[in-house]
Amino acid sequence: MSTVLTSEAQEQLNHIRYSRDTVHAHSPAIQKLFNLVIDYVDDAEKAGKNGTKVIWAGVPWAMPLIYSAGAIPVAFSEVGRISGQEAITVSEDYYQMPAETCSMVKATAGEWHLRKQAGTSITRIFGSSSGCEPYNLAWEVMKKEGFDVYTSDVVYRAPGVEGERYEELVRYFVDEIHDFNEWLTGSREIDKESLHREIVRKNYLMRRMREIMDLRLQHPFHVKSLGIMYLMNGLTHYFGKPEEYTEVLDALVEELSGLETDEAERQRAIPLIWTGGSGQEFGIYETIDDAGGSLLGFVSSPYTRDFPEDIDPVESVARFQLQSQMAGASIYRRHVIEQQVDRIQARGLILYGYLGCSFGSVTREIYRDYFHNKGIPSINLEGTFQVGAPSGQLLTRIKAFIEMLS
Predict the structure, then answer these.
(1) PANTHER family under this entry (predicted)?
(2) CB neighbours (10 Å) of residue 112?
(3) Cα 359 to the chain's mean position, in Å?
(4) CB of 298 within 8 A of CB of 273?
(5) Which stretches in the chain have pLDDT values below 70?
(6) Cα 334 from Cα 106, distance rounded (Å)
(7) Is 54 helix (H, G, I), strand (E, B) or coil?
């Protein structure tokens, strides 16, 4: 199914094409990446029409399991890329969501509604019950609208939890993974051979991403902000095409490895860390590029360590999640940010969140104060999850922030 794009979504699509054809004309790898971005949802819809299991999925830890079952996950982030003001209006008027509700929740609920009315083949939703309370309400709303919704209880492991208590968490999580598999496939039995292959693939791709991020320290402008944002997003879901996404990473490593270091380019680049969600207001990324900024560090996606390959693959998924997640109090995640600051010698932080997310706004203030006291300046941005042009004031703030760093 290919729905008629709203004017906002069409403009966003044109921005992606411009970045592919003009901004990244020098990089065949990033051009192929943007082709995957453009085709992701429509190709998943077609696969669903042809009998493949396709689900809306907002839980990163489950992606290897989803692929091992022969299904295709469509990430929530892509709902934002195809939704616009019409989806927000549906959520506010039809579902009576308050105007101050997080734009991510309103955009996804509204877009799902619109696509269901248009005959979408993707009618199953997998989310997390611990994501946020507004989403918990949205899950119930979607169930009443006829969607098949499954939510998982993400297990949090606080620092210091070791020994038997940690093993209890692993056992609980393993049981939950089987529950999810039963919802997805109709059976609690997991194809462990297939899951192991997906874990090996995931590890390979994360290692490739680490290579790319290291090489970008020598070539900070080869991949611009929009390109690296989508490259990082794809590490979670592969845009529904694991083999083609793998080819993109392999090709990009080859591209970067074949470049001669331009010391003037390195000196000109202003190293920045992005933490938080990825905004759909693409003008933000263009402004970062124009001001000389380079997004060389990310905190939103764990890719710095591998899944264990020498243990039961279901247990491997559980242990990877429990040992990787940065959940809980914000003081735990700030250590991850500090590691990125040291790795890239960051001059500044971009703290990004969605309008209406009160939890995120508090977290960003904690980070801002903490890193200000350590001499690392930051900018706190709030944007929309759905597509739309950023305000002139927002762009002016970003430009002024980066120019200050230079």
Answers:
(1) 2-HYDROXYACYL-COA DEHYDRATASE,D-COMPONENT, 2-HYDROXYGLUTARYL-COA DEHYDRATASE, D-COMPONENT-RELATED
(2) 25
(3) 18
(4) yes
(5) 1-9, 131, 154-155, 300-302, 325-332, 356, 358-359, 389-390
(6) 29
(7) strand
> pTM for the whole thing?
0.93
CA dist., res. 340 & res. 43, Å (int): 35
* 71 Cβ contact partners less than 8 Å away, ≥ 6 residues apart: 52, 53, 54, 55, 184
Burial class (CB in 10 A: 0-12, 13-18, 19+), 269: buried
Distances in Å between the Cα of 26 and the Cα atoms of 144, 214, 234, 259, 316 are 49, 20, 21, 12, 39
Q: What is residue 302's predicted lDDT score, i.e. its pLDDT?
A: 65
Sign of CA dihedral 53, 238, 355, 7: negative
Q: What residues have CB less than 8 Å from 348, skipping those under 6 apart?
A: 270, 272, 273, 376, 377, 378, 379, 401, 402, 405
pLDDT of amino acid 358: 66
Order of strands, sheet of 72-75, starting from the edge strand that comes earlier in the sequence: 72-75, 54-57, 124-128, 148-152
Here the tokens at position 181 are 């598999």
In whole angstroms, give the CA distance from residue 249 to residue 175: 33
The answer to whether 153 and 120 are in contact (CB under 8 A) is no
- 3-class secondary-structure state, position 247: helix
User: Reading across the β-sheet that carries 378-383, which strands appear in turn?
Assistant: 293-298, 270-276, 348-354, 378-383
The pair phi, psi for residue 274, each rounded to 5°, is: -105, 125
Alpha-carbon span 376 to 360, nearest angstrom:
20
Using CA atoms, how far apart are residues 115 and 119, in angstroms rounded to an integer? 6
Name the one residue in this structure whose structure tokens are 């929530």.
76
